UniProtKB/TrEMBL annotation:
This is Fimbrial protein. The keyword Cytoplasm does not apply. GO terms for biological process: cell adhesion involved in single-species biofilm formation. GO terms for cellular component: pilus. It comes from Shewanella gaetbuli. It is found in: Fimbrium.
Length: 180
């Protein structure tokens, strides 16, 4: 009986030591290398997206594959707009974030569906010509005290691999209005 009590005590001591050692190794294995802080604002004061802007279709037309001879070549630029109204005074600027299936070769572009290959759809800010990266915020358009604003963009085909093969090249993106 004494021998069994000693074995139980030894087992308890060894078990406790094993738990303590494993917690030390776990702590060192999950040591942090840095910190990320997330900040933001949730608001109920937003602009109204015009009914004509909620389901846009931009026809990029028919373009020759020869116009997309090198990676980065762009063709077929068409302007499209997102119209906002009834913006509250607390909104000083608005922009858009486009989200869709990114192109495998050039993730800043929208991938196309259809039979054409080597091509994606690029969106740019119409005012500055700067590129809008898919999944990122566009430039903000100031309201300057107005309650209505139009966000203007250009969509165009861009070669992502050569040769670009002929065929249909469609794409779709959802957008969210972003505010300052």
């Amino acid at each position: 009986m004494i021998k069994q009590a000693l074995n139980n005590k030894t087992f308890a001591t060894v078990s406790t030591a094993a738990v303590l050692l494993s917690s030390l190794f776990s702590a060192s294995a999950s040591a942090a290398d840095g910190t990320v802080t997330f900040n933001g604002i949730i608001t109920d004061q937003t602009c109204t997206v015009s009914a004509t802007s909620t389901a846009l279709t931009v026809d990029l037309g028919t373009v020759g594959s020869a116009a997309l001879a090198a990676v980065g070549d762009r063709v077929g630029g068409k302007t499209f707009s997102i119209e906002l109204s009834a913006c509250p005074a607390s909104v000083t600027a608005a922009g858009a974030r486009f989200v869709g299936n990114p192109d495998a070769a050039t993730p800043a572009l929208l991938a196309t569906t259809g039979t054409a290959t080597g091509v994606g759809v690029r969106i740019t800010n119409a005012a500055s010509g700067s590129d809008v990266v898919i999944g990122s915020d566009s430039e903000y358009t100031p309201l300057n005290g107005a309650t209505d604003v139009t966000l203007n963009f250009i969509a165009e085909y861009e070669a992502t691999a050569v040769p670009v093969t002929a065929g249909t090249a469609d794409s779709t993106a959802d957008f969210s209005v972003i505010y300052q």
